[in-house]
């Protein structure tokens, strides 16, 4: 159940925060885990923790991975922190991934930048057709949000329906949700997932979140 998972994520986050409070250096993968947990908890508090961790890392000159940044962007969007989401997304050095492509669409939706959104999807569907160029993939769930957003603008609906058909024909639509895309773990990262699961079960609490990172 979600309540059990929430408790597990909270326990895992407390472990990571205690590590940070004890000046344990985070690796790139540790930041991915921390931001992923904050994203899953999806609360104002977890957003503050994610933001604090990210800002501290940048101040220290640490380079955060694209995947970690994607979790931070997604969390900001879920918390209706559009300006923060746009700021983080703009700092992703190479946003050429399925997660970035879909987050960019959500940013356009929340920004009400519908003309630019349709143009972005058009470029993805009708751009360079070389088989050697990696095409952007879009989640069916995200595209459904686009259609819902433009449904009251006949001209944009017509354009979207045309683009939607082209994206399907070219195999650029996936049934995976945005959440599934974000949380997909490559084979060589399974060890980190197992480690996180172990921490969730065997190590629960050190001190309340409000007394740890955010209190400093």
How would you describe this structure to a colleague?
- This protein is mainly α.
- It folds into two domains: 1-94 and 185-216, Serine Threonine Protein Phosphatase 5, Tetratricopeptide repeat; 96-184.
- It has helices spanning 2-21, 28-41, 44-59, 66-78, 82-90, 98-111, 114-126, 140-150, 154-169, 178-183, 190-202; strands at 138-139, 173-174.
- α2 runs antiparallel to α3 (44-59), α6 packs antiparallel against α7 (114-126) and α8 packs antiparallel against α9.
- The longest helix is centred in the first third of the chain and has 20 residues, at 2-21.
- It is elongated and about 55 Å long.
- The model is unreliable at 190-216 (pLDDT under 50).
- This is Pentatricopeptide repeat domain 2.
- One of its GO terms (cellular component) is mitochondrion.
- It comes from Cercocebus atys.
- InterPro entries: PTCD2.
- GO terms for molecular function: RNA binding.
Short structural summary:
With 216 residues, the protein is mainly alpha-helical. It is built from eleven helices and two strands, in the order αααααααβααβαα.
Helix/sheet category? mainly alpha
In what range is the share of β-strand residues? under 5%
Fraction of helical residues = 55-70%
Query: What shape does the CA trace take?
Result: elongated
Number of domains: 2
Number of helices, where a helix is a run of at least 4 consecutive DSSP H or I residues:
11
